[in-house]
Structure formats: C-alpha cells, structure tokens
Amino acid sequence: MAQPKGLVDDFGILMECQKILPDDRHRLQLLESIAELENNEAHATRSFPKTKLHKIAGIKEAIYRAYIDKVSGWRLHVQYSRIDQRLHLKDVVPGQQHDNVIKVIKSKQSRYEK
After folding, report:
1. The domain containing residue 88 runs over which residues?
2. How many domains does the chain divide into?
3. What is the pLDDT of residues 74-110, one digit of tens each?
C-alpha cells in the first residue's frame, strides 16, 4: 500500500463539503478524490484518473484544481506548500461557479500562498 501524502485542511474545507455537497453520491466522490490526492504513488507517477489534478492556467501562483465530480462541476482547489512540502486544501467550488475560476480565487485571495 502506498504511503499517504500529507493533506492539510486549514480552512475547514472538508467540513464545508459535508454541508454543501448536494447528496451522498457527491460525498462519496469527495472521499475518493481525497484518497487519490493523499496517494504518494499518484503524485510520483503524476497520474490522477479520478481527480484529473491540474494547474490552473492564468494564475501566477501554483494553484491546482481537482475534480470531485466533473459532470456536475464540483471542484477542489489545492496548493502545494513550499514550507512544509504538503498539499493544502484551499477551497471547494460549487458546480455553478467552476467556470469563473479566476474570480473565485481572487474572492478568497487570502487563502492562497504567493
């Protein structure tokens, strides 16, 4: 079994997800996404079949998007910390807002490292 990668939730993103995700199917998909993000082997091979982890274009900082559910548009924003070399959850983006990614990030700019 692969060693888990440290995942930090400083802003209570997991608790927020429990409150705002529309149903149990989405909550289960969240758990699957978190498991993939914590998997060191996925990071070593850069293979993320569930979350399709990718860097957000148009932002200077290295902020990444990970799908909870691609079809409905639910996403997580994560950022690698240069300080502790761990992945930090920064935001959950509802399906209706996933296209306005830069606007969403700028609205919560204080959460993101520069």
Report:
1. 7-109
2. 1
3. 999 999 888 888 899 999 998 877 667 888 888 888 8
